[in-house]
Amino acid sequence: MALRHPIRDVRVTAISIIAKKNLFAALSELEALIEREENPMVLIEIVDALATIDHPEALDLLRKLAGHRYPLVQKRAQDCLEGKKGKPIC
After folding, report:
1. Does residue 55 sit within a domain?
2. What is the dihedral sign for C-alpha 41, 46, 51, 57?
3. How many domains does the chain have?
4. pLDDT tens digits, residue range 44-59?
């Protein structure tokens, strides 16, 4: 799957497609990627994707990322969660 591709841009493109198509069926794959991804830019792309996916599990993953070890990822997730009351704004 593209989410496991060694080239970062391929992973980012796959994440973007998941978001555009609102593929909540891919949330478990995104969760697995969150656990193994080291690149903060890919993680920020995941945050943005989760903010557009209309599913309760996406919101749970955003909350998880709001406590991430990378401050950039943490801040982006917090910003998405802060500005919404029921729906992410990022």
Report:
1. yes
2. negative
3. 1
4. 999 999 999 989 999 9
Residue 87 located in a structural domain: no
Residues 25 and 53 sit within 8 Å (Cβ to Cβ): no
- 85 has a pLDDT exceeding 60: no
pLDDT confidence tier of residue 87, bands split at 50, 70 and 90 = low
Mean pLDDT calculated for residue range 18-31: 96
Tokens encoding 36: 């193994």
DSSP 37-54: ---HHHHHHHHHHHHH--
Q: At which residue do the structure tokens 């029921």 appear?
A: 86
Q: Show the domain range for 13.
A: 2-82
**Structural tokens at position 65:** 């990322």
* Residue partners of 22: CB distance under 8 A and separation at least 6: 52, 53, 54
